[in-house]
Design a protein that fits this description.
- This protein is an alpha/beta fold.
- It has one domain: 3-Layer(aba) Sandwich (Rossmann fold).
- 40% of the residues lie in helices and 21% in strands.
- It has eight helices and nine strands.
- The strands form two sheets. It has a seven-stranded mixed beta sheet. It has a two-stranded antiparallel sheet with strand order 1-8.
- β6 and β7 form a beta hairpin.
- α1 crosses α3.
- It is globular, with a radius of gyration of 15 Å.
- The termini are far apart.
- Pfam families: DUF4154.
- This is YfiR family protein.
């Protein structure tokens, strides 16, 4: 799938899932399948439409046991930059040499300490819940029933030096200011 088609699919799905909530019976089968994006599809969509200051291959770091869905999604739609998924034991702090950190399974104390350490650095941080953005995370995944959406902390995104595609920012709900 090309970058523009992937962005269009991500935009359509998130628009249907977040901005225009409709009753399920009103959705066509195509629109319904697009609106039910998995967290892995959302994470990889955000990663694909973010530009780092360097062209080095990207490392997406996750807690041990959280990488299977991301790997499966990555096999379906490979990233041209050579995205590597690295799993780390949950009892250890997230590794330092990551381009993207998906905080899934690490204790909240580790989230806060790591987010403070990464403030202003070009590292994309993604976690679960509104509190993650309040603690200084960049993107916060939300579960709403069987649907997923995300918020963005625009202050953190601006200070990171990363360039996130404007369409992704428009699809996200603004999160709290850091």
């Amino acid at each position: 799938m090309t970058d523009s088609r992937l962005l269009r699919a991500l935009a359509t799905g998130l628009l249907l899932a977040v901005v225009m909530p409709l009753r399920a019976q009103e959705l066509s089968p195509v629109a319904e399948s697009r609106s039910a994006l998995s967290p892995a599809a959302i994470v990889l969509g955000i990663v694909r439409y973010t530009r780092w200051p360097s062209d080095a291959p990207l490392r997406l770091c996750v807690g041990e046991g959280s990488g299977a869905e991301l790997r499966a999604q990555l096999e379906r739609t490979p990233d041209p930059r050579g995205l590597e998924i690295v799993e780390t034991p949950r009892h250890l702090p997230p590794p330092a040499a990551c381009s993207v950190l998906l905080f899934d399974g690490w204790p909240p104390v580790a989230h806060r300490e790591t987010l403070r350490r990464l403030a202003g650095q070009p590292v994309l941080t993604i976690g679960w819940g509104h509190e993650f953005c309040s603690d200084g995370g960049m993107f916060c995944l939300q579960r709403i029933g069987d649907r997923h959406s995300f918020e963005v902390n625009l202050d953190v995104a601006a200070r990171s030096g990363l360039r996130v595609h404007p369409q992704v920012l428009r699809l996200a709900r603004p999160g709290p200011k850091a």
